[in-house]
């Protein structure tokens, strides 16, 4: 089953403490690239947030956007008043003993160890926030993957249609190929007869046959048609595999172009060239769709 690299998923959460919104967007890329835009509270957990995305997606650029809003006003640090008073008492006792008149600065006291402490509630909130965020990412990822699968089915249908059209045109070209040689033979005989009219010169049938055989050999595209058909059948089998196949399909399309270009250089017939140009056009349209496949 084909999967597109284009998709979108969104998931939201809200309670009395916070609101959280996760958006995932994916677009084309030859490799996997994740661009995460996280709030400060989740910056340290980027790898954990991206883990499920890396496990389930092989190619594409994925934009992870997390919007977080706290509904509570809590300080990042809290003041340990008991420890501050203890420091003040000790310093006051020392001042009396040494007879110092220097004032004890509150600013100085707050810089002493243990006076300003990190709010434990913030650590607990960060872990809870991470858990919620990972759950939202998984939910948004499921939605995005579903969208990529739907788009992949549409791509598969279009590629199948174009593949069928190319095979029909190749059948026409295959039928036309021997006719080209026959027409060349008639033109050659007519041209030679016209040029030798009124002279005593004669061109033997063996000479004509040799020239026609050389022309037929130069214009023979049967091998190229056979290989191109083989690539088309491989294309059909590949798009039905249950795995990422974008790179395999890209390689097959390159080979299809090569065979078609060879046929164009060999074809010495306007009708065949017109059909071959149409074949190249259809292959190009297939390649455009493959750019979107994971």
UniProtKB/TrEMBL annotation:
One Pfam family this sequence matches: YicC-like_N
Keywords: Endonuclease, Hydrolase, Nuclease
Cited InterPro entries: YicC-like_C, YicC-like_N, YicC/YloC-like
Keyword Oxidoreductase: no
Positions of the Endoribonuclease YicC-like N-terminal domain: 2-156
GO molecular function ontology, one term from the record: RNA endonuclease activity
Cofactor: a divalent metal cation
Annotated ranges, domain Endoribonuclease YicC-like C-terminal: 173-294
Domain of life according to the entry: Bacteria
Family: Belongs to the YicC/YloC family.
NCBIfam families: YicC/YloC family endoribonuclease
Protein name: YicC family protein
Organism of this sequence: Candidatus Brocadia sapporoensis
């Amino acid at each position: 089953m084909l999967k597109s690299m284009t998709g979108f998923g969104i998931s939201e959460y809200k309670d009395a403490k916070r609101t959280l919104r996760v958006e995932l967007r994916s677009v084309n890329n030859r490799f996997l690239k994740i661009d995460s835009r996280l709030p400060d509270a989740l910056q340290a957990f980027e790898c954990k947030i991206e883990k499920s995305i890396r496990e389930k997606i092989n190619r594409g650029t994925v934009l992870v956007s997390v919007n977080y809003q706290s509904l509570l006003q809590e300080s990042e640090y809290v003041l340990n008043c008991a420890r501050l008073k203890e420091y003040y008492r000790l310093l006051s006792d020392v001042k009396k003993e040494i007879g110092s008149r220097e004032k004890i600065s509150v600013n100085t006291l707050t810089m002493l160890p243990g006076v300003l402490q990190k709010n434990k509630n913030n650590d607990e909130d960060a872990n809870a926030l991470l858990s919620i965020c990972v759950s939202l990412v998984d939910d948004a990822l499921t939605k995005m993957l579903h969208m990529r699968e739907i788009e992949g089915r549409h791509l598969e249908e279009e590629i199948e249609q174009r593949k069928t059209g190319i095979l029909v045109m190749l059948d026409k070209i295959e039928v036309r190929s021997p006719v080209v040689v026959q027409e060349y033979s008639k033109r050659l005989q007519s041209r030679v007869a016209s040029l030798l009219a009124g002279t005593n010169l004669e061109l033997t049938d063996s000479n004509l046959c040799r020239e026609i055989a050389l022309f037929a050999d130069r214009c023979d595209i049967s091998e190229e048609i056979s290989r191109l058909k083989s690539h088309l059948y491989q294309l059909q089998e590949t798009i039905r595999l249950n795995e990422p196949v974008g790179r395999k399909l890209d390689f097959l399309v390159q080979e299809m172009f090569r065979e078609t270009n060879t046929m164009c250089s060999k074809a010495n017939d306007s009708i065949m060239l017109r059909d071959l140009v149409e074949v190249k056009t259809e292959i190009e349209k297939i390649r455009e769709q493959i750019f979107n496949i994971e």
